[in-house]
């Protein structure tokens, strides 16, 4: 391989690394947007539970809880999936660019596992909040 071919191959690899990095950054942006959606959904659910939860029929509560749980789980799944995608793209970027850098902590498997645990805990806590509004403790 001549020096010109090697230089062209290096340029192509550099361009590919830039594209992969741009894709990874867009995945991170999408993930942040989805986390904002999940927080908005959660806030709306908690406000609705607090304001009208005690006055809703069992059917209304079942529909509201089902809608909330399904939508929240779907958003959580998308957040985790996009985080994994961003992680893989970042690993590909590091490989293509020959950069000896560590993977960001937010893309480690432990951090992703913590995200799964956090989404699960928030879902259970929100549903418990609705239950506690519907079944207040009598003193």
Low-confidence stretches: none
Number of helices: 3
Distance between the termini: 85 Å
Largest sheet: none
Q: What's the mean pLDDT score? A: 82
Order of helices and strands: HHH
Q: Which structural class should the secondary elements be placed in?
A: mainly alpha
Overall shape: it is: elongated
Total number of strands: 0
In percent terms, what proportion of residues is strand?
under 5%
User: Roughly how many Å is the radius of gyration?
Assistant: 22 Å
Helix content: over 70%
Description:
This protein has 139 residues and is mainly α. Helix content is 83%, strand content 0%. The protein has three helices and no strands. It has helices at residues 3-52, 58-97, 109-134. The N and C termini lie far apart (85 Å). The model has no long low-confidence stretch (mean pLDDT 82).
List the main descriptive attributes of the protein structure presented here.
139 residues, mainly alpha, 83% helix, elongated
How would you briefly describe this protein structure?
The chain has 139 residues and is mainly alpha-helical. It is 83% helix and 0% strand.
Element layout with pairings:
Elements: H1 3-52, H2 58-97, H3 109-134
Helix pairs in contact: 1-2, 1-3, 2-3
């Amino acid at each position: 391989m001549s020096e010109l071919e090697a230089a062209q191959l290096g340029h192509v690899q550099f361009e590919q690394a830039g594209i992969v990095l741009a894709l990874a950054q867009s995945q991170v942006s999408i993930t942040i947007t989805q986390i904002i959606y999940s927080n908005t959904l959660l806030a709306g659910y908690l406000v609705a539970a607090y304001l009208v939860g005690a006055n809703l029929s069992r059917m209304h509560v079942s529909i509201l809880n089902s809608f909330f749980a399904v939508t929240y789980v779907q958003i959580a799944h998308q957040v985790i999936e996009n985080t994994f995608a961003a992680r893989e793209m970042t690993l590909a970027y590091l490989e293509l660019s020959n950069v000896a850098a560590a993977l960001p902590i937010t893309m480690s498997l432990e951090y992703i596992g913590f995200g799964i645990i956090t989404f699960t805990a928030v879902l259970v806590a929100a549903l418990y909040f609705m239950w506690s509004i519907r079944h207040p403790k009598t003193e």
